[in-house]
Amino acid sequence: MSSFALARVARTRALPVARRAFFTTSLRRTSGPEHEETFEEFSARYEKEFDQVQDVFELQRNLNNAFAYDLVPSPSVITAALRAARRVNDYPTAVRVFEAIKAKVENKTQYEQYVEELKPVREELGVNLAETLYPEGVPRP
């Protein structure tokens, strides 16, 4: 065997791996007991998030996050979301916000209350409801 071949074989030999623990015994430092976010804090946080939206991706990500909770966002959060949709020129998402509300509320009366309370904002921004765009019996695209 040539010296070149021996060097090559020596290089490919596996080196021993240092043993590592699969867990840590150190304590995780936290800021104290878990803080439950109140509905008012939730609303203020998402209003701020929607006020800072600069593109469609951020808008849709924030909407997904806001509607992922086991609650219906407040009308002030929905207003901020609709204004953000208008700012980034995303009309379809603005219409779908109302569809998300309809799916999230417990009954039709609650949905109608949201629609009524948000009517001035809808008219100001020119956002129609899906029910207006696609009356019953008309197939959706």
From TrEMBL:
Keywords for the protein's UniProt record, in alphabetical order: Heme, Iron, Membrane, Metal-binding, Mitochondrion, Mitochondrion inner membrane, Transit peptide
The UniProt record lists the keyword Protein transport: no
A GO term for molecular function: metal ion binding
CC per GO annotation: mitochondrial inner membrane; respiratory chain complex IV
Pathway where it operates: Energy metabolism; oxidative phosphorylation
UniProt keyword Heme present: yes
UniProt GO BP: mitochondrial electron transport, cytochrome c to oxygen
Membrane topology type: Peripheral membrane protein
Pfam family, one: COX5A
Subcellular locations according to the entry: Mitochondrion inner membrane
Main function: Component of the cytochrome c oxidase, the last enzyme in the mitochondrial electron transport chain which drives oxidative phosphorylation. The respiratory chain contains 3 multisubunit complexes succinate dehydrogenase (complex II, CII), ubiquinol-cytochrome c oxidoreductase (cytochrome b-c1 complex, complex III, CIII) and cytochrome c oxidase (complex IV, CIV), that cooperate to transfer electrons derived from NADH and succinate to molecular oxygen, creating an electrochemical gradient over the inner membrane that drives transmembrane transport and the ATP synthase.
Family the entry assigns: Belongs to the cytochrome c oxidase subunit 5A family.
Oligomer status and interactors: Component of the cytochrome c oxidase (complex IV, CIV), a multisubunit enzyme composed of a catalytic core of 3 subunits and several supernumerary subunits.
Protein name: Cytochrome c oxidase subunit 6, mitochondrial
